[in-house]
Design goal:
By secondary structure, the chain is of the alpha+beta class. It contains 6 helices and 3 strands; from the N terminus they run H-E-H-E-E-H-H-H-H. 20% of the residues are buried.
Length: 135
């Protein structure tokens, strides 16, 4: 009787381990990577965007490289998608690939977080024609 219980327990644990490993593999296969070109300018931008990503459903990891202005995100495709992630960034006032930043949120950004062209326009550094051709 003792051997039957031990054998049954061994089989139960073996099936449990196999099932857990399969579930983990399935979960990892749902994880996708995304790179988003942003209009981030400074460390404050990085902090703001990364903080928002921490609360975005389905986002696993994220990192904004300020040198390239690219936000790298890994996400669970069953919980979110690239359009939702881009929209979350744009709602903060930042451009996200071809999705423009929300104008009201952009207006509230600190000066250091605004696009350099906008700052130059405000300062009157050059004509509007120059902004469309050289900046």
């Amino acid at each position: 009787m003792k051997k039957i219980i031990q054998t049954a327990l061994f089989c139960f644990l073996s099936f449990g381990i196999v099932f857990a490993l399969q579930a983990k593999d399935n979960q990892q296969s749902n994880v996708k990577e995304l790179e988003i070109k942003t209009s981030a300018q400074c460390n404050m931008c990085k902090e703001t965007i990364e903080k928002a990503m921490a609360y975005e459903k389905g986002v696993k990891t994220f990192n904004l490289d300020l040198n390239t202005k690219v936000l790298k995100v890994t996400y669970d495709e069953k919980k979110t998608n690239p359009d939702k992630i881009r929209k979350a960034v744009s709602q903060l006032g930042y451009d996200a690939d071809d999705v423009p930043g929300n104008p009201k949120a952009y207006a509230k950004l600190p000066a250091c977080c605004k696009k350099p062209v906008e700052l130059k326009k405000k300062a009157g550094c050059c004509s509007d024609k120059e902004h469309t051709t050289t900046h």
